[in-house]
Specification:
With about 80 residues, the protein is an alpha+beta fold. The chain has one domain. Helix content is about 35%, strand content about 25%. The protein has 2 helices and 5 strands; from the N terminus they run E-E-E-H-H-E-E. Strand 4 and strand 5 form a beta hairpin. The longest helix is centred in the middle third of the chain and has 22 residues. The protein is globular and about 40 Å long. About 5% of the residues are buried. The model has no long low-confidence stretch (mean pLDDT about 80).
Length: about 80
């Protein structure tokens, strides 16, 4: 299996994005900030974007471990989820 490398980049429109390093297709994750928030964050915008992406990946990993594979290929959630 090939190893995929990912990179966090600043897009031409100022959005922070997570994309495959060797792929120029659409980003996997894109974070956009309003002009007001960008002015407030200034140079910290990239750091905040990185933290947001890291938190999203961590949650995604937790959700994956909370699903159990059961007979017949169905999945069973081990804990209730609330969509916010």
């Amino acid at each position: 299996m090939a190893l995929s490398l990912f990179e966090i980049v600043v897009l031409s429109n100022g959005d922070i994005a997570l994309q495959r390093a060797s792929d120029e297709s659409a980003p996997l994750i894109r974070i956009g900030f309003s002009d007001e928030v960008q002015a407030f964050l200034e140079d910290a915008k990239i750091d905040v974007g990185k933290v947001m992406i890291d938190a999203g990946i961590e949650l995604f990993e937790q959700l994956g471990s909370d699903l159990l594979q059961i007979e017949g290929g169905e999945t069973l959630e081990t804990s209730p989820r609330t969509l916010h």
